[in-house]
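Module 6 notes. Inverse folding takes a fixed backbone as the condition and produces residue identities as the prediction. Think of it as a translation problem where the source language is geometry and the target language is the twenty amino acids. Below is one complete input and output pair. Work through it position by position during the lab.
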């Protein structure tokens, strides 16, 4: 199937997201309960992570190695990121919609977050790490970056225990669409 970039972005702007099922078939999904990462003072992280941040062991980059972040996010026993979806992410990256927010330790990719930025909305697709704390530092630094750029929404799509450590919270689909509309009316740029 050929996926048109404009149609993909329009669907994300309406609250849908792409996922592959267990057979690798790509489809559009939505959720009645959406998970957000707070961009206000509700954002938090473990105190042990503050020590890591203070040590400045990681540097941060955007799109330094976008393909590696895609493959890092997909490289797990059970994944919803198929080869076809990686090709779509690469296409969206080339068009200026998909981004990787990365942490590095020297020349080694430590971790990263893959997402789609549409005006004031950042839709986080996945995250991974190669070095312990790499993705956690990426999360903290991404939130700082989104705040500095005036983003309204950091959509994490689905809740999990890891995201809960950062203060993630759920909202109804109706609330989500109202917030998404507000985010889409903002003129923000990730880079």
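Target side of the pair, the amino acids:
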């Amino acid at each position: 199937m050929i996926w048109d970039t404009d149609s993909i972005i329009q669907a994300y702007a309406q609250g849908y997201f792409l996922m592959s099922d267990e057979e690798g078939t790509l489809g559009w999904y939505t959720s009645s309960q959406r998970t957000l990462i707070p961009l206000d003072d509700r954002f938090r992280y473990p105190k042990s992570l503050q020590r890591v941040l203070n040590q400045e062991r990681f540097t941060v980059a955007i799109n330094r190695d976008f393909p590696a972040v895609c493959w890092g996010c997909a490289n797990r026993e059970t994944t919803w990121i198929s080869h076809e979806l990686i090709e779509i992410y690469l296409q969206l990256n080339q068009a200026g919609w998909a981004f990787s927010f990365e942490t590095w330790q020297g020349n080694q990719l430590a971790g990263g977050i893959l997402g789609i930025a549409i005006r004031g909305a950042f839709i986080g697709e996945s995250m991974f790490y190669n070095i312990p704390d790499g993705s956690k530092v990426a999360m903290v630094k991404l939130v700082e970056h989104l705040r500095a750029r005036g983003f309204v929404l950091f959509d994490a799509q689905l809740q999990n225990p890891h995201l809960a450590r950062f203060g993630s919270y759920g909202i109804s689909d109706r609330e989500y669409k109202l917030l998404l509309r507000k985010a889409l009316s903002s003129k923000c740029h990730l880079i």
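Reference fact for the lab report: The mean pLDDT is 95.
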